[in-house]
Amino acid sequence: MRRFQYGTALSAACAALLLTGLTGCGGSGGAAGVSASRAESAPADVPAVAADGAAKASRGPEAQDGAGRTAGKNIASEVTVTAQERQVIYVARMTVRAKEVTAAVQKAKQVVTGAGGYLAKEQTNSSDGGDGTAELEFKIPPARYAEVLTSLGRDLGKQLSLNQGTEDVTMQVADVNSRLRSAQQALDSLRTLLKKANTIGQVLEVEREIAAREADLESLQAQQKELATQVSMATLTLSVVGPVTVVEPPSEDPPGFLGGLATGWKALVSFVKVALTVLGVLLPWLLLVAPVVALVVFLARRSGRRRATPPPPPMRPGGGSPPTPAPVRPETAAPPVRHESPAPPAPPGPAAPEKS
């Protein structure tokens, strides 16, 4: 009975949460009903409105048009449209050829830092022959994003390529925020129910549900933080190459059969490279292990042959090998003994007549 009452209380709490969410939806309908009731409860104003309409009709159509335009302006002035702030992630990739890679990298860091950004990742390969490369990943405020791109492409050297992309995550951010609020409200309701629990079973059940809700809440908070980080700072991947570095343009496979054939050939070449790499890694070990394995196999076979050889015949007491028996000739051999079965007795014949 207590479990039934506890389940009823939990269901009532969930229903209260749903009714709280639906209260906002019913607010506009309630306001409209109140306005209508007020209009019906004031019949004394109807004659005045009718008289005003008659006066406007006597003024002519021009007066009515002017009044309509004035009313339209008043309605338009009362309505305000709130522009929803878009949540956009900016991503760009730029390749620049510079005379000195190290100096260009330092210049890029100064430009980004001056705009309020920071360096997130750096990979530099320096060389004396002028073929050094560097790859930098910057985080830039969206307000200075276009300015930084223009400055880097102009001041570092010759801009070879620039690829930009955007991703609108407004709906995703709104969804995460809404789910986060709902999860927080549900967690608060469960904590209230925990204070009203009477038995150990009820306490354990509510605590288990609270733990699950807290895990969901932490996951939503992590998603919200990640989206906020991506939206608040644009990402720029800058590649700086030396004056003699060969930059290969990104290859695009043609669609259809030729594209599939090219993809299959690349996969085959990659597989052969991986197989040769594995063989090169295992070859030194094979050279070391193969002689040991061959020696073990040889010894095993040799011991097997020794076990299969029959033992030699015993020696005579006086020495020498035992005499070999002479072969038996056919004419001196005893004839084989034949075992014949006895003949059956003859049947008795007719009795002879007696002589008188």
From TrEMBL:
Classification via Pfam families: DUF4349
Protein's UniProt keywords contain Transferase: no
Keyword terms of this UniProt record: Coiled coil, Membrane, Signal, Transmembrane, Transmembrane helix
Bias type Pro residues, positions: 309-328, 342-356
Coiled coil: 173-230
Transmembrane segments: 274-300
Domain DUF4349 per the UniProt entry, residue ranges: 86-297
Keyword Signal on entry: yes
Taxonomic superkingdom: Bacteria
Cleavable signal peptide: 1-25
Region (Disordered): 52-71, 305-356
Name listed for the protein in its UniProt record: DUF4349 domain-containing protein
Organism annotation: Nonomuraea montanisoli
Organism taxonomic ancestry: Bacteria, Bacillati, Actinomycetota, Actinomycetes, Streptosporangiales
